[in-house]
Amino acid sequence: MGRGEEMALLAREVIASYEARVSSVEQIVESTHEMLGTFRSQREEMRAQLKEALARAASLRRRDFDAMMEGVLAHQREREEAVRGTMKHYLHEQRTLAATLREALARGEAQRVGGLKELLEEITARREEREREVKTLLAEFQGEQEELTRALQGLLSNGGPVRVKEFKATLRAIQSRCCAGRVNGGRDDGNPVRLLPGEGVRPL
């Protein structure tokens, strides 16, 4: 088997690996959407409980409660959109990378040994970089949601009426941590790629 044929075989193996990875990424995206829905439901349930608890104690009007919570909720909505956007792009990019290699093989460009080797190395590097970004974003988002849940549950489980002073202090702490830990999770600047004859990966 010649060197060109070996590289073509390697490319086919990489394509098969990417197709399996795309299926795995699709499952991750679906699980992420379910996770977002679960966190949103938990957040809304605790928000409603706090709102009623403070209103019953005649310590905070409902509309004032809504206004105070809006800063936290706006940040959570922003983070959810960032996660959705990143996961959508991640899935699209994995599909594009697999299609890039398939098209190269169909045109016979896989026989260009040097170019294919460089392409495979660049695609692998990009995939690993994007995987790290996605894992970091999901871990940060999940950590934020768990911290918010603990903070709100702490107010509801103190065994007595919820005090406005404690509620305000909790909101300030949450907002402070949100601002300190804010990341550009929704960035969508990773470009799809294509293979040009004799060249490696280029942004579209």
Mean pLDDT: 75
Distance between the termini: 34 Å
How many E-type strands? 2
The amount of helix comes to over 70%
**Global geometry:** rod-shaped
Total helices: the number is 4
As a whole number of angstroms, the C-alpha radius of gyration is 24 Å
What sequence of helices (H) and strands (E) makes up the elements? HHHHEE
Strand content: under 5%
- Trace the largest sheet across and list its strands: 1-2
Helix and strand content put the structural class at mainly alpha
- Specify the biggest β-sheet: 2 strands, antiparallel
How many domains would you count in the coordinates?
Answer: 1
**Unreliable sequence segments:** 183-204
Question: Can you offer a commentary on this structure?
Answer:
The protein has helices at 3-56, 62-106, 113-156, 164-180; strands at 193-195, 201-203. With 204 residues, it is mainly alpha-helical. The two termini are 34 Å apart. Residues 36-63, 113-158 form a coiled coil. Keywords: Coiled coil.
Compact description:
This protein is mainly α and 204 residues long. It is 78% helix and 3% strand.
Please name the defining characteristics of this protein.
4 helices, two-stranded antiparallel sheet, 204 residues, disordered C terminus, rod-shaped, mainly alpha
